[in-house]
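Ticket reopened. Same input as before:
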Amino acid sequence: MNSPFRALFGRRSTQVERYLGVLIVIYSAVVGFQNPRFLSLETVFDIVHEGAPTMILAIGVLLVLVSGGIDVSFPAVAICSAYVSIKLMWVFGLDALWFMAPVSIAIGLLLGLVNALLIHFLKLPTLIVTLGTMSVYRGFMAVTLGTSQYPVATMPKSLAEFGLANIVSVDGEGSSYGLSVFFPIVVALFAVTWFILYHTMLGRAVFAMGSDEEAASRVGVNLLRTRLFVYGYTGALAGMAGLMYFAAMQNVDPVALQGFELMVIAAVVIGGAKLTGGEGTILGTFLGVLLFQLFQSTLVQLGLASTWASFFFGSVLLFSLAMIYYRQRKADQRNLVFRIG
Amino acid sequence: MADSILTAENLSISFGGVNALVDVNVAIARGEIRCLVGENGSGKSTFVKIASGVYHPSRGTVQVGGKLLSPGDPRAAIDAGIQVVFQDLALFDQLSVAENIAFSVLLNSKNAYVGRKRMRQLAADVLEIMEVELPLDDPVSTLSMANKQLVAIARALCMDAQLIFMDEPTAALTKKEVNRLLEVVLGLRDRGISIVFISHKLDEVFRIADTITIFRDGRKVGDFEAAELTQAKLTYYMTGREVEYPAYKREPREADEVPLLEVRGLADRLHYRDVSFSVRPGDVLGLTGLLGAGRTEVALTLFGLNQAVRGEILLDGKPARIASPQQAVASGIALVSEDRKTEGLFMEQSVGHNISSTRLDTLLNKLRFLDLRAERELASRMVQAMGVNNKDIDILVGKLSGGNAQKVVIGKWIATEPRLLILDSPTVGIDVGSKAEIYESIQRLARAGMGIILISDEPEEIAANCNRVIVMYEGAIVATVSQAERETPDFVERLARMISEPTSQLAAPIQEGVPQA
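Engineering reply: fixed in the latest deploy. New output:
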């Protein structure tokens, strides 16, 4: 059996991936029926532009969930890294992306490594540690740098331009639109993460640690190194995503993305990652975030306020997980397996 | 010894002032199968943990292939070719079979890139040596316990193991699977690999052992050629006393006409059909057959966890419906399930809380609060009655040995004062001494008028405790044995045959119909 899916991904599609794929197609068809303009290249480009920062954050979340942890500090890391990098740049009197991007990524990496060290040496649950650092990072930044907003007029020009830059431009009737530079960045990050997770020993160690930490350390997985990688990588991704978020919003808002962590985690969980670790796919994560982004940006076209987005998204989360676990439980009952959790 | 792979000399270790191992000398030859036997806490596991570098001995040395092993260093042991297949296997459930097998090798090779092809090749090579076939790309979570066991062994081999310790590898396997595993073990020996096999199942020990090393109270009793020992002698060395299992005999009672429990033509959707039997007060009914014969499923039905689709259950002669464990307990039925760790106990709770957990409704004072004194009293009484070694009811159940934990499970259910007690494989993984004590409890309870169903696949266990026996095969009853027949001299051998070759029973049933005393 050589389905196109198999040829592309080298494995069978998971139940969740098929389910999400169908759901996205049906939803798109419904929206397209209501508003034929929806089914256009412009919509695709829009979603790419708006969804890119979330996609990048979700990659980090996937990694953490696969490793058996939960990270809620990544939006704080994203905002802090980007904001600090901008402030630092102004100290040098610059206005350049080549300064902001590496610095923001480096700060994100650093904050992520701090998470990893705390988790490893305090031996605390990852949720507790990152709940703590989330507040510490945001609080420390607010105290030292303040919380001034910089709307498009006062934000760094290079950053504002970055947010509007396209790699391909299409002239439509009246307005022109294009494919954002975010697109190749996201694609590259997906590819790199996929390669690390599936084709390097480091990535396999992440799966092993999430599957059974004790067993992993017994076969010789270096837990500290693996954690440093997971949280450091997630932090670096967040540093990148933070800048992209400011750029996309055309507004530097140091108190943004509060509460966003749970939405992204939910998207990754819908995509098939397990909170118990060891499971999750990149394609699933992509589909989960795509669904989230679709709700965010298209409910208006169905005549609903965009505030309905979280309602719909939450319902999908509950319904799909309930269904998957229900099927599992039915199968268990048939086989007289009494499983905990 | 020149040809020995592992030589341990004068090993001693103590934990908190308790001597866990005293002056132990063990030499294991290349290509031999060594069985370690001894009761729980006799020092077998401690020995394995020192030999594999998990524990640092307070005295003594371990040499592997003539070279001194640096103590307390698991990596050094692994590099020297020592592998341990622990009872919990420590596999990665979500990863594929191939990856589980090849993981350590890939981790140790300097190559950061993981090639799927190489991974599958490594795994396939090892499985070929073992002469078994497993689905390389399936996640380990989808495998049976027996196949997981094989994956764990394959992983050890993949690491170039010269000596493999196996800690009770057969505890959760069916007869057929045990045979396959033992064949694999014999095959490895023929390739010059040494195996150290720890098991409570003495018949397996005799089948494969070249040499048997017996431990008792942290000391080595001695090394014996398998041929020079008998089961009785072995048991004597392990326990330091003659252990006998006196056979249970039921005395006739009044009001025998109405059984406690009667089951007529019972069937569930998938696992068994046409099951009929009865249990009177004082009966110990043996329910036996190979793993997967439907024994456990019948018990689950009686406990409200597996709905029957046909047939009748009568309690005291009246039709009863048991739809949930709550109803079962209310009707006076208790089930001690097979897996005490996940289904029988709260491992992180104290012994006292575990015992009282089934009786909380009766331990309330006038204000409907828990009467803590009554709770402690009940717990202490049960601990005494069951003969749990450690009388401290505040100790966590997880800290008890298997035998004592099992006594707590039984005690917990006895506390509900059931009229019918179902015990599913109550002595799996339990040492001989505790076993005898559990048998005593079973017989004492039966004599006091409780009806007991004992599920087991050990003929000796059934023969010692049951006055009537039912043999199941593939979901149906293939033989029933009356008390009179049970008392014939070669009964154990015949029962063993009935269990292992049930199909011959189908052709020539020993006795048909519902058993009568």
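Chain B has three domains: 1-81+199-243, 258-332+419-517, 347-417. The two ends of chain B are 60 Å apart (CA to CA). Please confirm and we'll close it.
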